[in-house]
Hints:
There is one protein chain. This protein is an alpha/beta fold. The chain has two domains: about 1-90, Beta Barrel (Elongation Factor Tu (Ef-tu), domain 3), CATH 2.40.30; about 100-205, 3-Layer(aba) Sandwich (Rossmann fold). The protein has five helices and eleven strands; from the N terminus they run E-E-E-E-E-H-E-E-H-E-H-E-H-E-H-E. The protein has helices spanning about 70-75, 115-125, 145, 160-170, 185-195, and strands at about 1-10, 15-20, 30-40, 40-50, 60-65, 85-90, 100-110, 125-135, 150-155, 175-180, 205. The strands form two sheets. It has a six-stranded antiparallel sheet with strand order 4-3-6-1-2-5. Strands 9-8-7-10-11 form a five-stranded parallel sheet, sandwiched between helices. Helix 2 (about 115-125) links the parallel strand 7 and strand 8. It is globular, with a radius of gyration of 17 Å.
Amino acid sequence: MKIAFTKKVHEYDDVYSFFFEATGVNYKAGQYTHLAAGGLLDLSIREMSFASVPGDPEVMFSMHVGSKSKFKERMSALNPGDRIRLFGTGAHVALPETGSGGLVFIAGGVGMTPFRSMIIEARKRGNHDIALVQVQRGDFLYRKELEPLVSEYSPVCRDAFAGALTKVAREYGDSIFYVCGSSGLIAFTVMSLKKAGVQKDKIKIESYK
């Protein structure tokens, strides 16, 4: 299907959020999809996580644009009303069916994208005890919006990341742990959580591309 671009919003540095009309787009919190920009003979395709929440009037995607890839240049050049293709929606992670229990979200940089959707949806759906650990060199994506929605919020730099993981594993050990970020961040986080006693089946991984 095709979706119409509405606007883009500068988040920080070279990170922007892109908004499109949501009419006819079906998805669940935490899911990803594929966006294709360009002509039929010269499409640029990227797997992107939904940052928006099901039922929102617009779908939202956030990303760095500084690498100047063809896809990112085409996204940055969109004007309101321009249409791109959306297809192949799926999921690597999902919220639990029950509306209670602890949820821990751990992300680096724009790895926060699917977790925005999941945290807002979890808060709407049930009585979850939610913790969020964000590791970042600079600004923290969605901080103003998400900090009031979680029980414990830990915005940390890389030097403090290991300590934050140990603390959240100790306090939320029986929760579900969602991890999203670079391959290095994921490997370090999973190792640290297991070392702190978190069971393997409690760790859910979403790796961004």
